[in-house]
């Protein structure tokens, strides 16, 4: 298959649509992103990497990092993680506080901010350096040693992080954090603020297409654990638009407010698309449109 041509074609379909979206501005550093940036990459389980547009330009991975913290926390600590975080869609915005009180400090799922804070806390407990573990994983899987936290983005998140600080303190009040709130927040911001390209993220997501096996052939997760991460991505990875994403794209996917979306084609490959303009829910408008066009053109789906 001519993957590069396929990517160019589906990006053109997305660009022909009328909607564009706006870059996130609740984290001021993200508002500086170029709204016209657009890139897409596919990495295949048999070793191919293909891209189009700005596929090699690093961007802020934001919540796409949550899929790697989840994978690493499960790999290091196993199923006990699920005692502190659920796996139900929240039907609420990614930074919502409302369910935490009625559900006694156990966040609905690992991909809303509340759940990601718990996962980051456990990864910090297990490794001593949660953000460092995510960076190392991304570097190893992508083969790109330059993948790193953008400290100016992390600092911008921290300065404007009242919501996340509120979530973390609230969770801590229920005894569901094992490290000091400030350390958990610092590691959370540092992994969200990692800069990586579509190429890097498509390669880093391949372990899910390989049912848990890393680039070097070692096993990170059991087949069952990898299936479960894909299932939680499908049901919760794009927040209160997860139903719409499953309807349009039909693949497990994880979005971030930097405009990236990483989707998994189990057994086949991994695809990452980036465009900073977001919809009201916080998902990339062109990113979702391009994935919709990709699966419509190819018939790729988990269904
Ligand atoms: O904590 C935040 O708000 C950001 N660091 C990440 C949020 C995010 O990417 C949600 N995704 N669409």
UniProtKB/TrEMBL annotation:
It holds the Pfam family Glutaminase. Substrate binds at residues 63, 113, 157, 164, 188, 239, 257. It is an enzyme of class 3 (hydrolase). Keywords: Acetylation, Hydrolase. Its EC number is 3.5.1.2. The keyword Acetylation applies. InterPro entries: Beta-lactam/transpept-like (IPR012338), Glutaminase (IPR015868). Signal peptide: none annotated. It catalyses: L-glutamine + H2O = L-glutamate + NH4(+). The keyword Membrane does not apply. GO terms for molecular function: glutaminase activity. Homotetramer. Belongs to the glutaminase family. This is Glutaminase. It comes from Kitasatospora paracochleata.
């Amino acid at each position: 298959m001519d993957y590069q041509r396929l990517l160019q074609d589906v990006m053109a379909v997305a660009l022909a649509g009328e909607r564009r979206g706006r870059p996130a501005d609740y984290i001021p550093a993200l508002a500086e992103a170029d709204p016209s940036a657009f890139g897409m990459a596919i990495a295949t389980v048999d070793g191919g990497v293909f891209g189009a547009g700005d596929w090699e330009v690093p961007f802020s991975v934001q919540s796409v990092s949550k899929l790697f913290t989840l994978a690493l926390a499960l790999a290091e600590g196993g199923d006990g993680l699920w005692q502190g975080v659920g796996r139900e869609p929240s039907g609420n915005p990614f930074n919502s506080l409302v369910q935490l009180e009625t559900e006694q400090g156990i966040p609905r799922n690992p991909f809303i901010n509340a759940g990601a804070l718990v996962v980051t806390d456990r990864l910090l407990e297990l490794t001593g350096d949660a953000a460092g573990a995510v960076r190392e994983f991304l570097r190893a899987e992508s083969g790109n040693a330059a993948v790193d936290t953008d400290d100016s983005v992390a600092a911008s998140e921290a300065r404007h992080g009242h919501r996340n600080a509120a979530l973390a303190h609230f969770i801590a009040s229920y005894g569901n954090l094992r490290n000091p709130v400030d350390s958990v927040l610092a590691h959370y911001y540092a992994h969200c603020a990692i800069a990586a390209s579509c190429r890097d993220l498509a390669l880093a997501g391949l372990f899910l297409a390989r049912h848990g096996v890393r680039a070097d052939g070692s096993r990170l997760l059991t087949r069952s654990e990898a299936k479960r991460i894909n299932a939680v991505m499908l049901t919760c990875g794009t927040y209160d638009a997860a139903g719409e994403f499953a309807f349009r794209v039909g693949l497990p996917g994880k979005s971030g407010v930097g405009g990236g979306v990483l989707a998994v084609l189990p057994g086949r490959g991994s695809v990452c698309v980036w465009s900073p303009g977001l919809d009201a829910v916080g998902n990339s408008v062109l990113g979702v449109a391009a994935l919709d066009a990709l699966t419509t053109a190819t018939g790729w789906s988990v269904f």
